[in-house]
User: Fold these one by one.
Assistant:
Number 1:
Amino acid sequence: MSTLKIGLVQQMCGTDRQENIRKSIAGIRACAAKGAQLVILQELHTGIYFCQAEEVEKFDMAEPIPGPSTQEFGAIARELGIVLVCSLFEKRAPGLYHNTAVVLEKDGSMAGKYRKMHIPDDPAYYEKFYFTPGDLGFQPVDTSVGRLGVLVCWDQWYPEAARLMALAGAELLIYPTAIGWESSDSAEEKSRQFGAWQTIQRGHAVANGLPVIAVNRTGREPDWSGVTGGIEFWGQSFVAGPQGELIYQSPAGEEDFAVVEVDKRRSEDVRRIWPFLRDRRIDAYEGLVKRYLD
């Protein structure tokens, strides 16, 4: 399968879990109706972005995998005959939680999962309080539509993660995301942040000769603790081709259910003219496994 139709579900989320799930499913159906074979949901799409503050009660939002959400979304994948990428708050054991992406096959079965490896801890993004770093490595998930290199949000800033997925044979790099502007950011800082976010991911596309799909949440979510003014998630989900070319970008501040066509054959063509994998000096990269070269 060379040409692949990919659905992006960019949505707003609130405190009503069932309403969030209803929106996700409506977006999935809208994308499938436009011919999507693969549909990607944003990070933690069944609830609010609860990491704005540290609150023990928020662990109650987690669920096992497999569990209720994989069952419900698996049934939708089976009904529509699509491959579906979900993003869930996983309860692995009492006191042990992960930020986990799940890939559901078109028959509703679980093709694989990825646990977020890089965990941020910044103002309004207190993820280290909630998530244990992933322990499944950078392993693509094999599906009926191809080998998917699924990563999650903060992973998108790390070229090592994208490279390892590419070296393991990923055909697409996929990033369910929840990123936005904290209330005190200036207009200039907002512009710089968004530019950096998109630029580095387009760089992953170039460096690895692979399409990149980033699906971000949108809308303003208040900080229930009152410490900050909340986060304005900037949306602007996008698809970049294997030379970093921008194929599609969702609007800011709006929900968007879009379908974008990607030709996976172009990765082979691009890698033939830009053979970065061939020319890597793997004999000289020992320093990459060190924290810093003092």
Number 2:
Amino acid sequence: MTSAASALNAVFNLVFGVLYGMLKWLGPFWSLTGIACLTGILMVWIFGKVSNQTAIERTRDRLSAELIGLRLFKDDLRVFFGIQFQVLAWTFKYLRHSIVPMLILMVPTVIILIQLNLHYGFRPLRTGESALVKVKLRAASAMAAESSLTLRAPENLQVETPGVHVPDLKEICWRVRGVRDGRFDLIVSDGKDSIAKQVAVGGRLEGVSTIRTGESWLSCLLNPGEAPIPVQSVIESIEIRYPELDILILGKPMNWLIPFLILSLVLGFAFKGVLGVKI
């Protein structure tokens, strides 16, 4: 399962890397807008392909007719309540025709959100900016010796503090500071094996991997930025607490998820007529 998840991640990373590479020069907001537009169109197109469009159109037309009837017979309570029952029945029929396509759409939607979080969730450290490095171990016994784990950083990064052990959480934490721009590897060693974690300092806005985690197919899919840590390692995960990337909208910082959801929904509905899709 893990190897299949890694293969899928490689494909998704390639596709989104190419797409993001073509749009990133526009800046965070406009590149996100472009991706939201493509996502909205893709989701509407998929909905049209996996749904019963004839049944949805017939159900919508009948539901609209019943709603008009509510206005026409609002003074006749017997007819009014009968129409209300029909509105409820046809609403459930509409939901029945829509629920399966919506469940199918959840699969590409989750994949897109995971990839977008990789590119828009966090930003690289700036030169002179510090961050926390957190190493989680598989077993508390690996923390028995103070020198059990060591952190080696390249010249681009300065390790500012010794490792702080948190036995209850099976964690060791360091604080590091960016010295020079670049992308490089931070090495965590237990004396036998060494595990690398990608670090990004400065440069152009790029996607950053916040965590490298163990060989679970789910964690692999949720954290596609780096290959999973081998299961035989005493290290379960290595995390760098990068600053969040805020999208500026009208001068106000905002998490990427809010404008993405709004833009993809609005733009998707705007193109449903062009695609001939009934929703």
